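Q: Sequence in, structure out?
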Amino acid sequence: MSRSESLAAYLRAQARRLLDRVEINDGGRNARSALALFDTAAYAACLPDDDPLILQLDEAGCFGPLGCEEFDPGQAGFRLIRDWPGGEPHELLLALPAAIKASA
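A: Exactly. Output:
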């Protein structure tokens, strides 16, 4: 599995988790966030592994120390993804390395 495929699979799993989450009075926030994550997953799946966004995630350690493990953004990245309100797909991918580095 390529790094972009691993990233897309992670984002799809997080989107499904949000869709399964039931919160009274969330005003559709979980559904909107899930749609944004599905959109970002589709975007990420099309990126080549040498795309600058993928390389930034690799430099942040999201693919393990050797860059060949499953995508794992750590706790800071997980929180950012979990709370992502939506936006352009590249915005989330750009925000992840900064959030991860800020927590280190």
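The chain has a mean pLDDT of 92.
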